[in-house]
User: Which sequence fits this backbone?
């Protein structure tokens, strides 16, 4: 089973300028993802940092990992999607005779992810499913405390008939936390991963599910990391 670990790291970042190489607990953010992939058993030859930034490339290579290519300009814009970035990386390796059965997508913005999370997600994957994706319990539940408005502007429960009066009685609802995606390379060739019919959850706790998007997220993640050590 050949696995390619892809770490996407575009140079432009509006929410947190330069976040991919900004020090998180004393180490550039992207280096946490690299070390987590290595800790999960990945050889450096199977870890791909996809970036358009010479500065990110420098930081990554100073951390001992060769960047195999520079991302083309059309995949370095604000509108470029992760799906296209994954296909580009697969094509790069296949043109060089390296074929992978599955992809592990590790976004640098999930530094509280642990090596064990990657290993556990990999253990859940098999040939019969399209993707294992890390999730956490959703902050709001459409059966209990998520509401919509009707034509008259009145609130009503989003899902169900409103009979749940205690959150613990409502069906559990999950949300992607952005930490780990294990995907079939063949399925990825056929469709966008958001359309995969067979997706299995790998559940992570809320305290490891912070996705860095704003400076407030960054501060919260550092505080949580320090408190968990």
Assistant:
């Amino acid at each position: 089973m050949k696995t390619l670990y892809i770490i996407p790291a575009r140079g432009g970042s509006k929410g947190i300028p330069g976040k991919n190489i900004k020090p998180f607990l004393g180490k550039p953010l992207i280096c946490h993802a690299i070390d987590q992939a290595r800790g999960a058993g990945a050889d450096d030859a199977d870890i791909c940092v996809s970036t358009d930034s010479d500065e990110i490339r420098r930081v990554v290579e100073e951390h001992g990992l060769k960047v195999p290519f520079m991302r083309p300009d059309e995949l370095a814009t604000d509108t470029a999607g992760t799906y296209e970035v994954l296909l580009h990386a697969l094509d790069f390796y296949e043109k060089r005779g390296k074929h992978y059965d599955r992809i592990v997508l590790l976004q640098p913005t999930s530094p509280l992810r642990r090596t064990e999370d990657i290993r556990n997600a990999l253990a859940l994957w098999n040939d019969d499913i399209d993707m294992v994706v890390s999730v956490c319990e959703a902050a709001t539940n459409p059966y209990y405390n998520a509401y919509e408005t009707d034509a008259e502007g009145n609130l009503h429960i989003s899902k169900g008939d409103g009979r749940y009066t205690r959150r613990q009685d409502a069906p559990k609802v999950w949300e992607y936390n952005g930490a780990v995606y294990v995907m079939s390379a063949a399925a990825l060739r056929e469709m966008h991963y958001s359309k995969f019919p067979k997706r299995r959850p790998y559940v992570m706790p809320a305290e490891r599910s912070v996705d860095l998007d704003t400076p407030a997220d960054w501060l919260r993640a550092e505080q949580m990391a320090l408190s968990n050590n």
Remarks:
- Residues 215-228 form the longest helix (14 residues).
- Residues 40 and 118 are 6 Å apart (CA to CA).
